Amino acid sequence: MKVRLTYTPSIIQKPTIAEVILESKAKININRANIGPISGEMIIDIPEDKYNRVVQLFKDKGLKVSLLYQPIMRDDSRCIQCGVCTSVCPVETFRIEKDWSISLETDRCIQCGVCTSVCPTAALTLSEGEI
């Protein structure tokens, strides 16, 4: 399950990821991280069987945790099926099908935002997610 972790200045310098992995014994995959000296954000994947425990541990350590039910959304009424998104996505969230339509595998999205910045019709938006 994909979640967004938001760090605050009080915890940015602490090894929270390592602590949660050790305490929960969960294999956590970091999809994307943007960590600075006073704040940060990560998109991570948590195994479903460890999800509740891991989320609680992160919350207990002071991180804001948001579940990304659908990391990226497409407005089909605006999408012109141009395929620009397929050429820029680093994780192949978009795919050109045999009928030339563009399919979307939302579970692959790491919310880098590249596709939303190049979409000529602004048909793509990133989800905020909440728990």
TrEMBL record:
<dbReference type="GO" id="GO:0046872">
    <property type="term" value="F:metal ion binding"/>
</dbReference>
<dbReference type="InterPro" id="IPR018449">
    <property type="entry name" value="NIL_domain"/>
</dbReference>
<keyword id="KW-0004">4Fe-4S</keyword>
<keyword id="KW-0411">Iron-sulfur</keyword>
<dbReference type="GO" id="GO:0051539">
    <property type="term" value="F:4 iron, 4 sulfur cluster binding"/>
</dbReference>
<keyword id="KW-0408">Iron</keyword>
<dbReference type="Pfam" id="PF09383">
    <property type="entry name" value="NIL"/>
</dbReference>
<feature type="domain" description="4Fe-4S ferredoxin-type">
    <location>
        <begin position="100"/>
        <end position="129"/>
    </location>
</feature>
<protein>
    <submittedName>
        <fullName>Iron-sulfur binding protein</fullName>
    </submittedName>
</protein>
<keyword id="KW-0479">Metal-binding</keyword>
<feature type="domain" description="4Fe-4S ferredoxin-type">
    <location>
        <begin position="70"/>
        <end position="99"/>
    </location>
</feature>
<dbReference type="InterPro" id="IPR045865">
    <property type="entry name" value="ACT-like_dom_sf"/>
</dbReference>
<dbReference type="InterPro" id="IPR050572">
    <property type="entry name" value="Fe-S_Ferredoxin"/>
</dbReference>
<dbReference type="InterPro" id="IPR017896">
    <property type="entry name" value="4Fe4S_Fe-S-bd"/>
</dbReference>
<dbReference type="GO" id="GO:0016491">
    <property type="term" value="F:oxidoreductase activity"/>
</dbReference>
<dbReference type="InterPro" id="IPR017900">
    <property type="entry name" value="4Fe4S_Fe_S_CS"/>
</dbReference>
<dbReference type="Pfam" id="PF14697">
    <property type="entry name" value="Fer4_21"/>
</dbReference>
